[in-house]
């Protein structure tokens, strides 16, 4: 890759919310640029980026009537796939990627999946994405045709890949502080689902640091050609 090209980080909330990506990029030594179409930011031409990271957000991937910029993002992900531009899509991003490549997003059949979940690697999938990770979503996805399922939880597909796209439904992009912020921001939604926020915060305090950031670091290293491993 051209070391001068940045990784594009697509966000879906008004503040950047890319702290883990920023730390990972600093560790690997790769520049990054945050764009948020939700506030009117334009997405740069693909030839101007080394890779794309699509973060989560409160929107539903299928709700383009209320969030028309999501249609632009889906087209961008499809173009990245066709141009073989490495793309990591997280949570909402994974659902957008599914829709962009011929799968689809849908409301989760059991509602909200929030908290620390056990992610299990799929045997012979070729990547090691197993671990205990933080998850927060009420929508889920059906991977596109031909995608390789990499990891699952007891309820949903948690990761898949297709060409240059790696889609992850849990949150490797949130560190402890980010999770705490999310729990505060979404307190009303959590209460409406009957989630015990105090118990979640106690679990967060007692949980070892998430390996999620290492997945982001590994992906960036692989992007630079410094490491073939995602772990």
Task: Describe the structure concisely.
The protein is an alpha/beta fold and 231 residues long. Helix content is 31%, strand content 24%. The model is unreliable at 226-231 (pLDDT under 50).
Account of the protein in words:
- By secondary structure, this protein is an alpha/beta fold.
- Helices cover 31% and strands 24% of the residues.
- It is built from seven helices and eleven strands.
- It has a nine-stranded mixed beta sheet, sandwiched between helices. Strands 5-8 form a two-stranded antiparallel sheet.
- A hairpin with a 2-residue loop joins strand 10 (157-162) and strand 11.
- Helix 2 crosses helix 3 (92-100).
- The longest helix is centred in the N-terminal third of the chain and has 14 residues, at 69-82.
- The protein is globular.
- It starts with 6 loop residues before the first strand and ends in a 7-residue tail after the last helix.
- 43% of the residues are buried.
- Mean pLDDT is 87; it is low at 226-231.
Highlighted features:
single chain; 231 residues; alpha/beta; 9-stranded mixed sheet; 7 helices
């Amino acid at each position: 890759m051209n070391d001068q090209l940045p990784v594009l980080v697509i966000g879906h909330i008004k503040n950047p919310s890319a702290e883990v990506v920023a730390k990972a990029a600093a560790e690997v030594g790769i520049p990054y640029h945050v764009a948020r179409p939700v506030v009117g930011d334009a997405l740069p031409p693909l030839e101007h980026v080394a890779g794309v990271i699509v973060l989560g957000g409160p929107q539903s991937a299928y709700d383009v009537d209320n969030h028309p910029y999501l249609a632009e993002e889906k087209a961008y992900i499809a173009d990245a796939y066709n141009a073989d531009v490495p793309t990591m899509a997280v949570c909402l991003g994974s659902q957008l990627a599914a829709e962009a490549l011929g799968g689809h997003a849908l409301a989760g059949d059991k509602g909200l999946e929030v908290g620390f979940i056990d992610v299990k690697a799929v045997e012979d999938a070729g990547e090691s994405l197993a671990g205990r990770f933080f998850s927060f979503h009420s929508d889920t996805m059906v991977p596109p045709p031909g995608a390789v399922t990499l990891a699952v939880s007891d309820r949903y597909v948690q990761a898949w890949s297709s060409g240059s796209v790696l889609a992850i439904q849990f949150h490797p992009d949130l560190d402890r502080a980010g999770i705490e912020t999310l729990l505060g921001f979404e307190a009303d939604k959590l209460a409406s689902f009957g989630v015990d926020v105090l118990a979640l915060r106690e679990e967060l305090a007692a949980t070892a640091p998430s390996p999620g950031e290492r997945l982001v670091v590994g992906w960036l290293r692989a992007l630079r050609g410094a490491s073939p491993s995602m772990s």
